[in-house]
Design goal:
By secondary structure, the protein is mainly beta. It has two domains: 202 residues, Jelly Rolls, CATH 2.60.120; 101 residues, Immunoglobulin-like (Sandwich). The protein contains two helices and 20 strands. A six-stranded antiparallel sheet has the order 1-4-5-12-7-10, with no helix packed on it. The chain has a six-stranded antiparallel sheet with strand order 2-3-6-11-8-9. Strands 13-20-16-17 form a four-stranded antiparallel sheet, with no helix packed on it. A hairpin with a 5-residue loop joins strand 18 and strand 19. It is globular and about 65 Å long. The relative contact order is 0.16.
């Protein structure tokens, strides 16, 4: 009997199908749960990508679409990220794009390679820096900045760039107790003199900068960009952020009513993907449906509680005019525009 031994399977994009090499989530900028921009303040833009600005620098960040059939960036990506800072011209002015990788132990004591496609509106330098954060809570070690700072010279054409970095060991370090330690990298687009040590004296500048296919992997060699399906990438993003748009109805059951002059209804919302930690919960509006019609409350109380990394509970208390016999049959709690945030 012959035996076929398979050591590895590689697709045409270079990705190993039996394991994942790219530590960056949404490196292809496929997922934009928060919208397509323009984003004009510090915060998350494309999923898992955070932009921070300061010192009077302003910005506009948007999702841009590649022309169908373009060949400047391989494997037919659909979107790229465009960031346009306008410098504040101060020593304290800065703007960078970053992504935090869960767990400061990631690549600790190892060599890594960051690769990405980028271009600018003219020849301009940017700087890449790695950062080890030991989290919050308790007495964590101090954040380590300025790791393997590298200057990258962009042009007005799409080019693939690589940056190799030696990530320090974390031996002897102390983690915080909140479970939010991370290894991050920052791509600095402008930086006043206050940040010279972290940016190789990048300096103040304005302009338009565009990025695609960002990959971080172990070793000193940049391999072809690893492609993942949209469904897989979305699930990875939803570990940190989930957004539900529009009206959602959840079957509720009657609970004990010992406090209010009304009736308690309880429901559970289960997340599409288990999250990194118990998320913050934001909902635009809430309501209820009973007996196939929307009620108007004469008095109401609504609460979200018992949140975990997998679900949260909802409790609504409503009173109404009319007989109880017609008021406690088909009941659901309604939520509108729900956002769950468990980012690092």
């Amino acid at each position: 009997m012959s035996v076929l031994q398979v050591n590895n399977i590689t697709d045409t994009g270079g990705s190993t199908l039996l394991g994942r090499k790219n530590a960056i989530i949404n490196g292809n900028f496929d997922v934009w749960q928060r919208g397509s921009g323009a984003f004009v303040s510090s915060g998350y833009t494309s999923d898992r990508w955070y932009i921070l600005r300061g010192g009077s620098t302003t910005l506009s960040t948007t999702r841009q679409t590649f022309a169908l059939g373009q060949t400047d960036v391989p494997y037919n990506p659909k979107y790229y990220l465009e960031a346009s800072p306008t410098t504040g011209g101060l020593a304290s002015s800065f703007l960078y794009i970053s992504q935090a990788i869960e767990g400061v132990s990631s690549f600790a004591g190892e060599t890594v390679t960051l690769s990405f496609y980028a271009k600018a509106d003219a020849s301009k330098n940017i700087a890449v820096e790695f950062v080890q954060s030991f989290g919050s809570g308790g007495s964590p070690s101090t954040v380590v900045t300025g790791i393997s700072v590298t200057t990258v010279a962009l042009t007005a054409a799409w080019v693939k760039y690589t940056v190799t970095a030696d990530i320090p060991s974390i031996t002897g370090k102390t983690l915080g107790t909140d479970g939010n330690d991370s290894l991050a990298f920052a791509i600095w687009l402008e930086a006043g003199s206050d940040y010279n040590a972290r940016t190789n004296s990048l300096g103040n500048q304005s302009g338009t900068f565009e990025f695609a296919q960002v990959q971080l992997e172990a070793g000193s060699v940049a391999t072809p960009f690893e492609r993942r399906s949209y469904g897989e990438e979305l699930a990875l993003c939803q570990r940190y952020y989930q957004k539900y748009t529009g009206d959602m109805y959840y079957n509720a059951h009657r609970g004990l009513d010992n406090t209010y002059d009304g009736h308690v209804y309880i429901a559970t919302f289960v997340y599409q993907t288990p999250m990194r930690a118990t998320p913050s919960i934001n909902v635009t509006r809430y309501g209820w449906l009973a007996n196939q019609s929307v009620w108007t409350a004469s008095s109401s109380a609504f609460a979200i509680g018992d949140a975990t990394s997998n679900s949260f509970g909802m409790r609504g208390v409503w009173s109404w005019t009319g007989s109880e016999s017609t008021a406690n049959t088909t009941t659901a709690i309604r939520l509108e525009n729900l956002a769950l945030d468990a980012e690092l």
